[in-house]
Amino acid sequence: MIVNLVVLLACQLAGEVAARGLGLPIPGPVIGMALLFAAFILQPRLAQRIAATTSALLAHLSLLFVPAGVGVVGHLDTLGRDGVALMAALLLSTVAAILAGVYVFLAVARLTGASE
């Protein structure tokens, strides 16, 4: 399990180094996730090996939200001041993401000739 965690963290570190070193506008963890995905494609046994570790991490995912909750409590004054704008941005971005997903699904269905 330790080796699997090292692989996950190494991919994230590589993504952070690439994002900051090259000045990319993409977050480092996203680049790291793409690197991990590429590693899974090149080495399918790696995906099978890491599956148990990632399942354990996902089972305890709620623990990762504790720092976010502490951050919200720490910035209650900002939420009180800009709460309406933050909620509007959250609502609009959620609707935009859902609509983008719908349009991508429709485009892929049209390209693949899937029947309705």
Task: Characterise the protein shown here.
The model has no long low-confidence stretch (mean pLDDT 90). The protein has two domains: 1-59; 66-116. It starts with a helix and ends with a helix. It has helices at 2-22, 28-42, 44-59, 66-74, 76-112. By secondary structure, it is an all-alpha fold.
Short description:
The chain is mainly alpha-helical and 116 residues long. The protein contains five helices and no strands.
By helix and strand content, what is the structural category? mainly alpha
Number of strands: 0
Q: How would you describe the shape?
A: extended
What is the distance, rounded to the nearest whole angstrom, between the alpha carbons of the first and last residues?
44 Å
Alpha plus pi helix count: 5
Largest sheet, strands/sense/barrel: none
Give me the strand/helix succession: HHHHH
Tell me the domain tally: 2
Share in helix: over 70%
Low-confidence stretches: none
Average of pLDDT: 90
As a percent range, the share of strand residues is: under 5%
Radius of gyration, in Å, reads 19 Å
Pfam families: LrgA
InterPro entries: LrgA/CidA (IPR005538)
Protein name: Antiholin-like protein LrgA
Organism: Limimaricola cinnabarinus LL-001
